[in-house]
UniProtKB/TrEMBL annotation:
It holds the Pfam family NTP_transferase. It comes from Roseinatronobacter thiooxidans. The keyword Metal-binding applies. The keyword Nucleotidyltransferase applies. Residues 5-240 form the Nucleotidyl transferase domain. Belongs to the glucose-1-phosphate thymidylyltransferase family. It catalyses: dTTP + alpha-D-glucose 1-phosphate + H(+) = dTDP-alpha-D-glucose + diphosphate. Its EC number is 2.7.7.24. This is Glucose-1-phosphate thymidylyltransferase.
Length: 290
């Protein structure tokens, strides 16, 4: 089976977070002690993926590259792609078509944070499916704000409905999409919605019409945070701070994951530690070596 590749969609203008995003990309904002983009990057790394395309706006790309380089410090290989205008989430598959070259992919939205003990195993199950697609449903109290999964009596997905006034379930589709190598071809057949965007829901409906879409529900042991508003950005930072200070562990650390996966050795980690001086993040990484 062809090795799955990763996509982080970190474009968009972040207007809901104005004025704080008027001079910087939303995905470069801090979520407690790390840049926001570290968290979706970590989710892709936990899936064992090392070839990753990062899609940004043309004006923000240099800032991302200054932060993340070519990925070699984590044993990764980054491909940088620009999104001239935010024309919908499904557009990411058109922009990344050459990068994917027929490979299946795991796409994570750049403002989504996932946390849970069984996350690598859940992603591995989705990867093992091969053909078709898997999306991840998460129970929310306000499903009318999201794309919502409609299940039949046997628990199979029947439809995904965008922002329904009467939600058929409490399960929202998260910003994590595990699709096979046909995603760019399918995305190319989509027409823009009334709001002028290539909707990810429409792409998922194409998989569903073929009987090739699975929904994996994330249970109580998982956290899914969307940092698209001022309130949710603060909530996410507080969530990370509480867990890290309580447990003395890191959430969303590419350095820790790269070291634990054997993608970098102790010498490579030491180079990273030297960057962080005596702050808490550097001290944590030093503890991994000693």
């Amino acid at each position: 089976m062809t090795q799955r590749k990763g996509i982080i969609l970190a474009g968009g203008s972040g207007t809901r977070l104005y004025p704080i995003t008027m001079g910087i990309s939303k995905q470069l904002l801090p979520v407690y002690d790390k840049p926001m983009i570290y968290y979706p990057l970590s989710a892709i790394m936990l899936a064992g993926i090392r070839e990753i395309a990062i899609i940004t706006t043309p004006e923000d790309q240099a800032q991302f590259q200054r932060l993340m380089g070519d990925g070699s410090q984590w044993g990764l290989d980054f491909t940088w792609i620009t999104q001239p205008s935010p024309d919908g989430l499904a557009q990411a598959y058109l922009l990344a078509e050459e990068f994917l070259a027929g490979s299946p992919s795991l796409m994570v939205l750049g403002d989504n944070i996932f946390f849970g003990h069984g996350l690598p195993e859940m992603l591995a199950r989705a990867d093992a499916q091969g053909m078709g697609g898997t999306v991840f449903g998460y129970r929310v109290a306000d499903p009318e704000r999201y794309g919502v999964v409609d299940f039949d009596d046997q628990g199979r997905v029947r439809a995904i409905i965008e922002k329904p006034s009467v939600p058929p379930s409490n399960y929202a589709v998260t910003g994590l999409y595990c699709l096979d190598g046909t995603a760019p071809q399918k995305a190319a057949t989509i027409s823009p919605s009334p709001r002028g965007e290539l909707e990810i829901t429409t792409l998922l409906e194409l998989y569903l019409s073929e009987g090739a879409l699975r929904v994996e529900t994330m249970g109580r042991g998982y956290a899914w945070l969307d940092t698209g508003t001022h309130e949710s950005l603060l909530d996410a930072g507080n969530f990370v701070r509480t867990l890290e200070q309580r447990q003395g562990l890191q959430i969303g650390s590419p350095d820790e994951i790269a070291f634990s996966q054997g993608w970098i050795d102790a010498t490579g980690l030491d180079k990273r530690i030297s960057l962080f001086g005596k702050n808490a993040y550097g001290a944590f990484l030093k503890g991994l070596v000693t």
